[in-house]
Amino acid sequence: MKNNIKQLLVTSATSFELVPFMDFLEKEAEKKSFFEYNFNGFSIFPVVTGVGPTFTAFAISRFNGIKDIDMAINIGIAGAYNRGFEIGDAFQVDKDCFGDIGVEEADGSFTDVFDLELMNHSSFPFANKWMINDSKKKIESALPAASCLTVNNVAGTDVTINSRILKYNADLESMEGAAFAYACKMMQVDYLQLRAVSNYVEVRNKANWDIDLAIQKVNAELIKCLKSINLRIA
C-alpha cells in the first residue's frame, strides 16, 4: 500500500535512547539537513526532548513545523509494574496517565488533581483520567498494547509503588509518555508511543536493570515499522 505519511517526528527523552535509530538513519536514509532525513519517501525529524513531562511537552509544542507533522512517535525505556512482562519486551502504549500531580495525604496516600476536582477527569484530552490513543493514523505492528503511568518522580519504595499500583493499575511507568500524548492531542497531531522494559518497578536496584537491551529492542521495533512502510494515513 502506498505510504502517505510525508513528515514524521521521532522523539525521545535522551540522545542515548535514539542511538540505534540514528545509526540506521545515517546508513540507510538521505541526510537532507542537520535536523532532517529522507527515507522511503517521507521526511524524518529526530528530536531529543529532555527528561520528564515538562521538557517533553514544551519541546513538542515548540517544534518548528509541528502543524505539518503527519505523525509523531515517542520511543524510550520504561519500568514495568506488570510482572508478566520480561526485561526487553517492547509495547505500544495505548493509554497513558499523569501519576503524581496532586497531594500526598497524611496517611501517605496520594490524591490526584482529578480527585481533588481541580481538573475534570473526562474533559479533552482525558477520558476518566487517561489519554487514549485513538489516532486515525495508525502504525501496524505485532507489538502488544500496554498502559503507562507518567511521573516526575520514578517509584523507588514499596510505599510509593503499592500506592500507584492500587490507584492506577498501569502496566508500565515512564517520565514522558503522558506529556507526549497530551502535547500531540492538544496540537492535533496523530501519535504513537513505543516503550521497552528496562527494569521492574521495585525498590531501586540498578543491578537488575538492562537499559541497553531495552534501547536495542525499542529501536529495532521502530526501524522495523519504517522498513515495512507501515506508517500511513488511514
Could you outline the blueprint of secondary structure elements for this entry?
Blueprint (H helix, E strand, L loop, with lengths): L6 E6 L6 H10 L1 E2 L5 E3 L2 E7 L4 H9 L9 E10 L9 E9 L3 E3 L5 E3 L18 E2 L5 E2 L5 E6 L7 H11 L3 E3 L2 H10 L4 E10 L10 H17 L3 E2 L2
Parallel strand pairs: 1-4, 1-5, 5-13, 6-11, 11-12
Antiparallel strand pairs: 2-3, 3-4, 5-12, 6-9, 6-13, 7-8, 10-14
Helix pairs in contact: 1-5, 2-4
Would you kindly provide a written description of the structure presented here, covering whatever features stand out?
There is one protein chain. This protein is α/β, with parallel strands linked by helices and about 230 residues long. The chain has one domain (about 5-230): Nucleoside phosphorylase domain (Rossmann fold). The protein has helices spanning about 20-30, 55-60, 160-170, 175-185, 210-225; strands at about 5-10, 30, 35-40, 40-50, 70-80, 90-100, 100-105, 110, 130, 140, 145-150, 170-175, 190-200, 230. The strands form 3 sheets. Strands 5-12-11-6-13 form a 5-stranded mixed β-barrel. Strands 7-8 form a two-stranded antiparallel sheet. Strand 2 (about 30) and strand 3 form a beta hairpin. Helix 1 packs parallel to helix 5. The longest helix is centred in the C-terminal third of the chain and has 17 residues, at about 210-225. The N and C termini lie close together (about 10 Å). About 40% of the residues are buried. Residues about 230-234 have low confidence and may be disordered.
